[in-house]
């Protein structure tokens, strides 16, 4: 179930917005609870409740979570199983009508504490990855062995998303839609590894904030449908990476470190138009045009013995024009059996 709780940055909407794939509230009072259990003492639960508040208003609340189990990797140093898949999430959706306007409010929160990915990383000194397993041996084609987890790896990722869709009709042939999305994400991870007389201490902190706004105007004619609109997307992201490497060379411990800070700001703007023309019941022509402008501002800086990074700032802006054309033809085959 966790895969279904992801937050997308683009969707089927023409502009592309922060989007939550969520089931709409039901028109009748209903609910469901699902419990599941698996190997390694893994337990999980899901629950959903649909509540109609009036003839035009309904809400849906859904919760899901898992204890992650005991994990499948045995850490010899701590004597504990690691590599679990623990997470919890909640989602709320409210749909209502405000006069002639339909409003759809969605909110989602995910707390992901899985450390399964932290038990498998690529060793930077070899072309092949190193696995940590129950016998504490990881052999590559060069014969390197005995890779240890020094601590129980930890990882925490929190996502919060809010989306609001407003739609209405200007006339029987003209309708509009406004789509707003906001996403906030933080992620932290720690993993300490001992391999080939070296100790790797890795720390990673990431943040990301995204906001998007899209407006669509749809015109439906007898044979031709038009969709025109504008779109904005903004993002601010940061990353702090700390790596300490203690290597034993000829009996002497050599300490190396790196501390880098990355920042990325991005803003994108777009105007788009899409047309769909029905030549007949079997043939349809469609095309589209999109004008994009994107501005990026990125900086990288840090200090350390491992590839010391000097502060670097990069600013870029570009315009892009893209179009599409397609032709669809369908045929119907009828048969009669007497």
Q: What does this 3D model show about the protein?
A:
- This protein is mainly beta.
- The chain is built from no helices and 19 strands.
- The protein has strands at 7-8, 19-20, 30-38, 42-52, 58-66, 73-75, 80-82, 87-98, 101-112, 120-121, 130-131, 148-149, 154-169, 174-195, 198-220, 224-249, 252-278, 283-304, 312-329.
- Strands 3, 4, 5, 8, 9, 12, 13, 14, 15, 16, 17, 18 and 19 form a 13-stranded antiparallel β-sheet that branches. Strands 1-2 form a two-stranded antiparallel ribbon. The protein has a two-stranded antiparallel ribbon with strand order 6-7.
- The protein starts with 6 loop residues before the first strand and ends in a 9-residue tail after the last strand.
- Residues 1-16, 121-145 and 331-338 have low confidence and may be disordered.
Main traits of this protein?
two-stranded antiparallel ribbon, extended, 13-stranded antiparallel sheet, disordered C terminus, mainly beta, 19 strands, 338 residues
Quickly describe the structure.
By secondary structure, this protein is mainly β. 0% of the residues lie in helices and 66% in strands.
Poorly predicted regions are 1-16, 121-145, 331-338
Over the alpha carbons, how many angstroms does the gyration radius reach? 26 Å
Distance between the termini: 48 Å
- The geometry reads as extended
Oligomer: single chain
Structural class: mainly beta
Helix content: under 10%
Beta fraction: over 45%
Describe the secondary structure blueprint for this structure.
Layout: E1 7-8, E2 19-20, E3 30-38, E4 42-52, E5 58-66, E6 73-75, E7 80-82, E8 87-98, E9 101-112, E10 120-121, E11 130-131, E12 148-149, E13 154-169, E14 174-195, E15 198-220, E16 224-249, E17 252-278, E18 283-304, E19 312-329
Antiparallel strand pairs: 1-2, 3-4, 4-5, 5-8, 6-7, 8-9, 9-13, 10-11, 12-14, 13-14, 14-15, 15-16, 16-17, 17-18, 18-19
């Amino acid at each position: 179930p966790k895969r279904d709780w992801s937050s997308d940055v683009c969707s089927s909407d023409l502009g592309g917005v922060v989007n939550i794939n969520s089931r709409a509230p039901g028109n009748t009072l209903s609910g469901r609870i699902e419990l599941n259990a698996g190997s390694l003492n893994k337990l999980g639960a899901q629950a959903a409740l649909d509540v109609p508040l009036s003839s035009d208003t309904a809400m849906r609340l859904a919760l899901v979570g898992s204890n992650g189990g005991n994990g499948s990797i045995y850490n010899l140093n701590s004597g504990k199983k690691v590599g679990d898949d623990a997470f919890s999430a909640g989602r709320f959706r409210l749909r209502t009508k405000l006069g002639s306007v339909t409003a759809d409010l969605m909110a989602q929160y995910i707390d992901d504490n899985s450390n399964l990915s932290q038990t498998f990383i690529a060793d930077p000194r070899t072309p092949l990855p190193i696995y940590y397993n129950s016998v504490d041996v990881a052999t590559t084609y060069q014969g390197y062995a005995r890779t240890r987890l020094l601590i129980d790896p930890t990882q925490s990722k929190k996502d919060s998303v809010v989306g609001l869709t407003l739609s209405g009709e200007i006339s029987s042939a003209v309708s509009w839609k406004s789509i707003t999305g906001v996403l906030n994400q933080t992620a932290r991870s720690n993993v300490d590894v001992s391999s080939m007389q070296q100790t790797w201490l890795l720390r990673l902190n990431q943040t990301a904030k995204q906001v998007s706004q899209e407006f669509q105007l749809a015109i439906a004619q007898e044979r031709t449908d038009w969709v025109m609109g504008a779109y904005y997307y903004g993002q601010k992201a940061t990353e702090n990476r700390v790596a300490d490497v203690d290597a034993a060379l000829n009996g002497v411990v050599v300490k190396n470190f790196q501390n880098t800070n990355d920042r990325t700001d991005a803003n994108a703007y777009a105007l788009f138009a899409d047309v769909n023309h029905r030549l007949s019941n079997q043939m349809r022509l469609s095309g589209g045009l999109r004008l994009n402008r994107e501005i990026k501002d990125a900086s990288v800086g840090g200090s350390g013995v491992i590839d010391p990074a000097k502060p670097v700032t990069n600013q870029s802006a570009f315009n892009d024009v893209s179009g599409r054309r397609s032709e669809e033809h369908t045929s119907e085959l009828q048969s009669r059996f007497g």
